[in-house]
Design brief:
It holds the Pfam family HTH_18. The protein is mainly α and about 575 residues long.
C-alpha cells in the first residue's frame, strides 16, 4: 500500500486531457471491474491491461498514466512493477510537466527501495524527484519526497537528521488531514500522516524512548479507528507495539501484537517489516524459554533473505542464533549453510547501506539550510494576511515558494541543478523582480490585493459561470493571466482549471449535503448547476475530489439519513 499512498494524489495534477469526449466513461467502467481488488492481486491485471490499451488507442495521456499506476499497484511481481514504473516515467517526461516528472521519479524510487531494497538506485531517483520538485509548487509532492529522503537517511543510520524530515512531513500531513475530513484528500493525507508517524516511532524506539514511541502507537491506532483501507498502517502500529513490549519485558503482549501484524505484512510482501516482526517474535519466544518456536521465526528471516536478498543491520544477529542452534545440535551442514548466508547478508548490507554520505546528502542538505534561512520571509508573508483564515491556510504551504526562491538563488550563484528543464508556455512568465523577458519593468497589483479579489470572486460564486477563464478573470482583477496563474499556484497550490473546478465541486457537494432537492437532480443537471458543461467532466472531477461517483455520494447520504 505504500505505493498507493504516494502516487494517486500527485500523478495527474494539471495534466491536459486530450481524449475525445466520451472516453472517460470507458475508463471508469473498466476500472469499476477491478477497483475492489487489493494490492498485488493479479486478478485485476486483465482489466488494467485493457485500460492501458484503450488509453493508447485514444491517445489519452492522463488515462494512460492512471492505468500504468494501477498496473504498478496490482502487479505482484516486482520486476514488472519496475517496468510499469519506467513507462510512467517515459509518459511523464513526454508531458514536460515538472510535477508529473518529479512524481514519476519518486514512484520508481519507491519501488527500488520498497520492493528491491536497492537504496542506491532509490536515492538516485529521489534526488531526481527532488530536483524536479523545486520547479513546481505542489507542497504535497515536496513533503512526500522529503519523507522518502528521510527513509533513506534512517536506513543509513542518520536517525537525528531523518527525524527532522519526518517531523516536518508529519506536521504538514497532520494539518492537511485535519482540514480535509470527509474527502478523498483526507484518506490520502491520513495515510501519509500514519507512515510518517511510523518512521518517527521507529526512531524513538531505536533511541530507547519507549514511552514516547508507545504513545505515538496509540495515537496512530486512534487515528485509524474503525476506518477501512488502513490495514498496512495498522500492521505497522501493531508491529511497533509488539517490539516495544518485548524491549520492556512484556513478551506475551509482544507476541500478541506481532502475531496481529504478521499476516498483513506477509500479504503486502513487505520484506523489511515482515523480517523485523519475525526477529522480535523469535526473541520474545526465546525470552519465554520456547527456543524451538524462536528458531522457526529466525528461519523465516533466512527465507525472506533467500527470496529477496534483503537483510537490515538491525536483524543480522538472527543468523548468529541459527548458527549457534545448528552448532548445538551438531548440525555441521546447518552451520556451514547459515555461515555462508551470513557472509552473503553482510555483503548485501554493505551494498545497500554503505552509501557515501557526501554523495547522498550534500546537495539536499545545503538546500535545506537555505530553506531554513528563507522561512522567515515566508512567516513575514504569512503575517501580512493573518487576519484572513483562507490566506492563513494558504500560506502554510509557503515551503513551495521557499524552494522556488532557493533554486533561483542557486542559479544566480552558478549552482544549477543538472536537470532537464523542458516545456512550453514560459514566454509570459515574470521573474521575481517583476520583469518580463525583455527586461521591462511591469506594474503588478499587490499579492494581497489579488487574493482579496479572489475571495470576493469565490463569495459571489462567479466560478459557477460556464465561460470562466483565466484571461477574462485576470482582466477583471486588473492583472495579466501569467501573474494570476502564478498567485493561484503559489497560494492555492493548484492550477487555474483545478482551482475553478474544485470550487465548483465543493459548491455542489455542499448543496447535495444540505439541500434535499439537489439529490433528485440528474448528473447532467448537477453539472450545469455548478458551471461544468459536460456530465463526464463533472463526474471525473467529482470523483477526483470526493473519491466516489456522484450517484454513489447521493446514495450514501440517503442511507445515512434513513439511519437517522
Amino acid at each position: 500500500m505504500l505505493l498507493r499512498l504516494l502516487l494517486p494524489m500527485m500523478l495527474f495534477l494539471g495534466l491536459r486531457i486530450d481524449a475525445k469526449s466520451g472516453d472517460e466513461e470507458i475508463y471508469y467502467k473498466i476500472e469499476s471491474r477491478y477497483s475492489a481488488f487489493l494490492e498485488n492481486d493479479r486478478r485485476a491485471m486483465p482489466f488494467v491491461r485493457n485500460n492501458i490499451a484503450t488509453a493508447k488507442t485514444n491517445g489519452n495521456t492522463r488515462a494512460l498514466l492512471w492505468a500504468y499506476e494501477d498496473a504498478v499497484f496490482f502487479t505482484p511481481e516486482k520486476k514488472i512493477k519496475l517496468r510499469y514504473a519506467d513507462s510512467i516515467l517515459a509518459v511523464a517526461k513526454s508531458t514536460a510537466k515538472p510535477d508529473l516528472i518529479a512524481d514519476a521519479w519518486l514512484g520508481r524510487g519507491i519501488i527500488y527501495a520498497f520492493n528491491f531494497k536497492n537504496y542506491r538506485a532509490a536515492l538516485d531517483d529521489y534526488i531526481q524527484a527532488y530536483q524536479y520538485s523545486t520547479l513546481q509548487k505542489d507542497a504535497y509532492l515536496f513533503h512526500h519526497i522529503e519523507y522518502q529522503i528521510g527513509v533513506i537517511k534512517s536506513y543509513l543510520g542518520y536517525d537525528t537528521e531523518a527525524l527532522v524530515h519526518f517531523e516536518n512531513a508529519l506536521r504538514y500531513f497532520q494539518e492537511k488531514r485535519s482540514a480535509d475530513i470527509g474527502s478523498v484528500s483526507y484518506f490520502n493525507h491520513t495515510r501519509a500522516y500514519l507512515n510518517c508517524l511510523h518512521q518517527v516511532i521507529m526512531i524513538y524506539r531505536r533511541q530507547n524512548k519507549w514511552k514516547e514511541a508507545a504513545a505515538l502507537c496509540e495515537t496512530g491506532s486512534s487515528a485509524i479507528g474503525r476506518q477501512q483501507g488502513f490495514g498496512q498502517e495498522q500492521a505497522y502500529m501493531d508491529k511497533e507495539r509488539g517490539i516495544i513490549d518485548h524491549l520492556q519485558g512484556g513478551d506475551n503482549r509482544a507476541i500478541f501484537w506481532l502475531r496481529k501484524a504478521l499476516p498483513e505484512l506477509r500479504r503486502l510482501q513487505d520484506a523489511a517489516n515482515f523480517s523485523v516482526a519475525c526477529y522480535y517474535m523469535g526473541h520474545s519466544y526465546r525470552a519465554l524459554g520456547n527456543q524451538k518456536t524462536a528458531i522457526l521465526y529466525f528461519t523465516k528471516i533466512d527465507s525472506v533473505f533467500s527470496a529477496t536478498g534483503y537483510l537490515s543491520p538491525e536483524i543480522r544477529s538472527a543468523y548468529a542464533m541459527l548458527i549457534n542452534e545448528a552448532r548445538k545440535n551438531n548440525n555441521t551442514q546447518g552451520v556451514n549453510f547459515y555461515t555462508a548466508q551470513l557472509m552473503s547478508a553482510d555483503s548485501s548490507i554493505i551494498k545497500n547501506f554503505a552509501i557515501l554520505p557526501k554523495k547522498t546528502f550534500t546537495d539536499y542538505d545545503a538546500a535545506t539550510l537555505r530553506m531554513e534561512n528563507l522561512r522567515l520571509l515566508t512567516r513575514m508573508d504569512k503575517e501580512e494576511w493573518m487576519g484572513d483564515a483562507a490566506i492563513m491556510i494558504g500560506t502554510t504551504f509557503g515551503i513551495g515558494l521557499v524552494v522556488i526562491v532557493m533554486v533561483r538563488k542557486r542559479v544566480g550563484q552558478g549552482r544549477v541543478w543538472s536537470v532537464c528543464r523542458t516545456g512550453k508556455g514560459n514566454s509570459e512568465r515574470l521573474n521575481e523582480e517583476g520583469h518580463n523577458k525583455s527586461g521591462k519593468k511591469e506594474q503588478r497589483p499587490n499579492v494581497a490585493h489579488i487574493l482579496a479579489k479572489l475571495r470576493d470572486f469565490e463569495r459571489s460564486k462567479e466560478f459557477l459561470k460556464e465561460d470562466v477563464n483565466v484571461t477574462e478573470l485576470a482582466r477583471e482583477l486588473g492583472t495579466n493571466r501569467s501573474y494570476l496563474s502564478s498567485i493561484i499556484n503559489k497560494h492555492k497550490h493548484m492550477s487555474f482549471p483545478q482551482y475553478i473546478n474544485s470550487l465548483r465541486i465543493v459548491y455542489i457537494t455542499k448543496r447535495l449535503t444540505e439541500d434535499r432537492i439537489y439529490r433528485s437532480y440528474s448528473v447532467d443537471a448537477l453539472a450545469k448547476c455548478c458551471g461544468i458543461a459536460s456530465r463526464k467532466t463533472f463526474a471525473k472531477h467529482f470523483r477526483r475530489i470526493n473519491g466516489i461517483a456522484p450517484y454513489e455520494f447521493i446514495n450514501k447520504i440517503k442511507k445515512e439519513q434513513d439511519k437517522t
